[in-house]
Amino acid sequence: MWESIELQEVRAFLMVAAELHFGRAAERMYLTQSRVSQLVRSLEGRIGGRLFERSSRRVRLTALGAHLYDRLEPAYGALCAALDTTRDMATGTAGTITVGVMLQSSAGPHLLPLVRIFEQRYPQCAVHLVELTYNARPYERLRRAELDMLAIRLPAPDDAELTVGPVLSVENRILIVARDHPLAGRESVTYNDVADYATVDVPSAPKEVLDELFPPRAPDGRPIRRIVPVNSVGEALTHVAMGTVVYPTVASILRYYQHPDVVALPMAGASPSRSGLVWRTGRLSAAAQAFADLVAEELPRLVHDA
């Protein structure tokens, strides 16, 4: 019986189990929601039991589904790794590398030139850049091998299964406020000033990144109140323009995301923020390893020439 199970059924189950939402799973698989439901029902029929409890308001794993997920997810990862490494043995440095970019500001100013250099040096390779939003769960997607690597704000989670590679950017921090905000006329501000006001919260962002940009407490010990949840930079800037919040971030953010009713103030006393490449330890394909090596080699020259 098991020989007849389709790999797509397994992938659909794992996607729904990770998202607990058939619609989001369908988007990630580039399928219709009805097709994903059909694949899950087919797997449930082969197994002989329900894997999910479904209602109009929520989806959750049954005990049977949780049992299967815990055993199937690492096995699926091992299967993908075996196929990847075998392909590399057959083709050498070739194929597509998928790099998830957690907001354009995390890519830094040199990632696109690096991609061009790489594709010229390795004409059988292509780099596919995927912009990720706040709610994209980047490290989950990386661990499920949907991405070869991430370009993301650091620090990364303290996890031996993750490797932090070359640093892509080092930049100063700013505070974005409304044009008519009481702080707008200041030459600079500090995190102590941030504690006087409410700021945004990004519940789905990696905790390490969130705590780096929005520390729980200011240097004087007062809490920094992250009380307005947002799902995008544009949404954050709208709340700033309305005077609801202030928004501590990095200097390049307004290069990529703009709003006419906000201004940026330098943040004094805050260490520079870094972004870099992160990948699964020991799981890079030959092409992805070649790209990581090229970034480490060429990036210092690009920074020097800038």
From TrEMBL:
<dbReference type="InterPro" id="IPR000847">
    <property type="entry name" value="LysR_HTH_N"/>
</dbReference>
<dbReference type="InterPro" id="IPR018130">
    <property type="entry name" value="Ribosomal_uS2_CS"/>
</dbReference>
<dbReference type="GO" id="GO:0003677">
    <property type="term" value="F:DNA binding"/>
</dbReference>
<protein>
    <submittedName>
        <fullName>DNA-binding transcriptional regulator, LysR family</fullName>
    </submittedName>
</protein>
<comment type="similarity">
    <text>Belongs to the LysR transcriptional regulatory family.</text>
</comment>
<dbReference type="Pfam" id="PF03466">
    <property type="entry name" value="LysR_substrate"/>
</dbReference>
<dbReference type="GO" id="GO:0006412">
    <property type="term" value="P:translation"/>
</dbReference>
<keyword id="KW-0804">Transcription</keyword>
<dbReference type="GO" id="GO:0005840">
    <property type="term" value="C:ribosome"/>
</dbReference>
<dbReference type="GO" id="GO:0032993">
    <property type="term" value="C:protein-DNA complex"/>
</dbReference>
<dbReference type="GO" id="GO:0003735">
    <property type="term" value="F:structural constituent of ribosome"/>
</dbReference>
<dbReference type="InterPro" id="IPR036388">
    <property type="entry name" value="WH-like_DNA-bd_sf"/>
</dbReference>
<dbReference type="InterPro" id="IPR005119">
    <property type="entry name" value="LysR_subst-bd"/>
</dbReference>
<dbReference type="InterPro" id="IPR036390">
    <property type="entry name" value="WH_DNA-bd_sf"/>
</dbReference>
<keyword id="KW-0805">Transcription regulation</keyword>
<dbReference type="Pfam" id="PF00126">
    <property type="entry name" value="HTH_1"/>
</dbReference>
<feature type="domain" description="HTH lysR-type">
    <location>
        <begin position="5"/>
        <end position="62"/>
    </location>
</feature>
<keyword id="KW-0238">DNA-binding</keyword>
<dbReference type="GO" id="GO:0003700">
    <property type="term" value="F:DNA-binding transcription factor activity"/>
</dbReference>
